[in-house]
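Sat 14:20. Reprocessing the chain from the morning session after the first attempt stalled halfway. Input below, unchanged.
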Amino acid sequence: MTDAALTRLSSRFDRLYSTTGRPSIPPEQLLRALLLQMLYSIRSERLLVEELDYSVLYRWFVGLSLDDPMWDATTFTKNRDRLLAGDIADAFFAEVLAAIQADGLLSDDHFTVDGTVLEAWASQKSFKPKAGPRTPPDDPSNPTVNFHGQTRRNDTHQSTTDPDARLYRKGNNREAKLAYLGHLLTENRHGFIIDTAVTDASGTAERDAAIFLLGELPLTTRRLTVAADKAYDVRAWVAAVRRMGITPHVAQNAFGYGGSAIDARTTRHAGYRRSHQKRKLIEQAFGWLKTVALFRKLRHRGGRLVDWQFAFGAAAYNLVRWRNLVAQRG
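Finished this time. Tokens:
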């Protein structure tokens, strides 16, 4: 499965690498190694290189012989910008999804959308005022910071570790964290991830990203449906989705301002109840990404790089899901 996707990306790799100078490490090998890191929950690239050095199985998967010298961990750092500039993660994700589509496993009509918090690789101590004097820390390695009683807002403060991260809390009486929001669009037949996005953390980002992801779907004359939780039961969002020719199967929030935007014209259909049965599949994808692929706490900084990693993680999840379904099918 991985071989076919990487083979189709060969021409894209050729454009990223020079034909002169010292031979580079094949990008296919780098991507295979990153795939192993997500599949086996290896927490750092340094530990990944260490395991590649002694694991015969890992070497076979990556394409290294027993006599090939192992790379340095900084190899990933040096090549990441090149892979990022070439949108390799999105291309790999698209190739995997196209192969799954050719296998007849995707639904073209029924989808689910949701978002989750991705905790940034930055501490609360790094969230400092954008303007004003910077006093030298008492301890450069671990400064003492007392921000209790201060008003800390995203428009006046910014993380010095990851400037793209935003202070965000998931709900009332929840702690605020420096975070991004990761968004998924999945199909309802088998729960494959159709599209991904990573955005700044804000109160409307989930609904805004959902409109963007739904707008990326191919044009069709068929009536599509999209399932979502109560956070999407907002009249403006429901109206926008309907204007796109998509029926919103949103969970009703009867306690929201003005009541629910979803009435019996939608809820009376059996398809509405079926959509909410299938909506659980997107939580499986989030669960895998956060526990197995280790996205609960990000290991990279910068919105663009986090988006790259998230798309690559989604491709890894689709590969695992595809393999399981093929095994069940026999």
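The chain is about 45% helix and 15% strand.
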